[in-house]
Write a structure and sequence with these properties.
Elements: E1 4-6, H1 22-30, H2 34-40, H3 60-67, H4 70-78, H5 93-99, H6 106-109, H7 119-135, E2 162-167, E3 172-180, E4 186-193, E5 199-206, E6 209-216
Parallel strand pairs: 1-2
Antiparallel strand pairs: 2-3, 3-4, 4-5, 5-6
Length: 221
């Protein structure tokens, strides 16, 4: 099986319920008991899950940045935390550290990119990606309001690898991979849902828009 990174996007409790350890892990982290908080994680991919219990929806790295926990920041980075992940207010962990005057964290939290896509190009691609997600089943779904859709900038922090965005309420999701870089960067996306007859399809996304490659059932506009 190919290695994969995950975007866990729920900012509210999904229809199937949150995993039982999620609230306790966040409560422990907010109280400063990071050893127990991290021990509760089901696996390391959850270090980047947006917090479902506040309006900022930051990840654990945002919280550690606010608390000024250098040792915790280092641990989270080793577990794969993304320096460039934004909360619902557009703040990355480094902006949170600056807001709380945690100067000892500035160097640690400065985003480090190993792939090259101009930021303006990446934002255009992200716009089309989100539009494709919202339209995949033939129209907007109100439950997307309870989710933080995938951000593409964290993909620049790692070498080429496939990402996964699960959507519990339709028993499916999206695999997506940044297959090329530069001004003509391309994102390959495969989406499938078991709740609508196994419908799925693949699209290619660039700054110019969405190109349908293979479609089975409802597809993005």
């Amino acid at each position: 099986m190919r290695p994969m990174r995950f975007w866990h996007g729920y900012t509210r409790e999904p229809p199937c319920g949150l995993l039982p350890w999620v609230r306790e892990s966040w409560d422990r982290a907010k109280a400063g008991d990071w050893q127990k908080a991290l021990a509760l994680l089901a696996d390391d991919s959850f270090v980047n899950q947006p917090c479902p219990f506040d309006d900022a929806h930051g990840a654990l790295l945002h919280l550690a940045a606010a608390q000024g926990k250098l040792d915790v920041v280092d641990t989270l980075l080793l577990k794969g935390a993304w320096r460039s992940q934004q909360d619902a207010r557009g703040n990355r962990p480094i902006e949170v550290a600056r807001k709380h005057d945690q100067k000892q964290l500035y160097d640690r939290l400065k985003p480090q990119f190993v792939r090259d896509v101009p930021f303006a190009v990446l934002l255009e691609m992200q716009h089309y990606f989100h539009r494709a997600i919202r339209g995949w089943r033939g129209g907007p779904n109100p439950q997307y309001a309870e989710m933080m859709l995938p951000q593409l900038q964290p993909m620049l922090e790692v070498e080429r690898i496939e990402f996964r965005f699960d959507i519990a309420h339709w028993c499916g999701g999206f695999n997506y991979e940044l297959v090329s870089e530069g001004d003509e960067a391309r994102l390959d996306v495969f989406g499938a849902s078991r709740t609508i007859g196994g419908s799925g399809g693949r699209v290619e996304i660039t700054r110019h828009g969405v190109k349908h490659i293979r479609l089975e059932g409802p597809h993005p506009p």
